[in-house]
Design brief:
This protein is of the alpha/beta class and about 190 residues long. The chain has five helices and ten strands; from the N terminus they run E-E-E-E-H-E-H-E-H-H-E-E-H-E-E. Helix 1 runs parallel beside helix 2. The structure holds iron/sulfur cluster (SF4).
Length: about 190
């Protein structure tokens, strides 16, 4: 099986989830958020095809890291590949975070017609959900670019059938604020 990636594995990230993480940058996203930081990851034909078995060998070398983050792009546009990768990461003891432009509620609606969404969620520990909204842009929220995005405990959310927010990440650090009128951070 192959996965379409935007770039090679990125190790040692401290901004894409808790701890020291390896980031997998998926290629392809249809959310088209205004002000997206990664517009080059939108095209579903760009990037490159990566053999997942080869990727697993690279991920094994990430065992000293705290976990893996599926980002992009949006991993929910490559459900089979993302599930295979997430399942493997968990099997070697790596926690799995994932970013998506969908909200948890939207995923639950889509999952009624596509059970593969649930399969992927079952292999994710933490989901950062929702589109990037430039009107809610902030640099003060941990691991998120805009205030509407939430950090969700996926296992609890699936059990309770509603998003369960991990509140410890809501203790944000107010060191910079975005002044919308001036289009700048102060
Ligand atoms: S979901 Fe993420 S990658 Fe996709 S357009 Fe929005 S910000 Fe960009």
């Amino acid at each position: 099986m192959y996965v379409r990636l935007a770039s090679p594995l990125q190790r040692d990230s401290i901004v894409d989830g808790e701890g020291l993480r390896t980031v997998i940058w998926f290629q392809g996203c249809a959310h088209n958020c205004f002000g997206c930081h990664n517009p080059s990851t939108h095209d579903f034909e760009s990037g490159f095809l990566q053999d997942i078995e080869e990727l697993k060998k690279q991920l094994k070398k990430s065992c000293y890291q705290d976990g893996v983050t599926l980002s992009g792009g949006d991993p929910f546009f490559q459900l089979d590949a993302a599930t295979e990768i997430a399942r493997f990461c968990q099997s070697i003891g790596l926690s799995v975070w994932a970013y998506t432009g969908y909200t948890f509620e939207q995923l639950m609606i889509l999952a009624k017609k596509n059970k593969k969404i649930i399969e992927l969620l079952e292999n994710i520990d933490v989901l950062v959900d929702g589109r990037f909204d430039i009107t809610k842009k902030t640099l003060n929220y941990k691991f998120r670019g805009s205030k509407n995005q939430r950090i969700i405990d996926v296992k609890k959310s699936l059990k309770q059938e509603k998003p369960v927010i991990i509140t410890k990440y809501d203790q944000n650090e107010p060191y910079i604020t975005y002044q919308k009128e001036k289009h700048m951070y102060i």
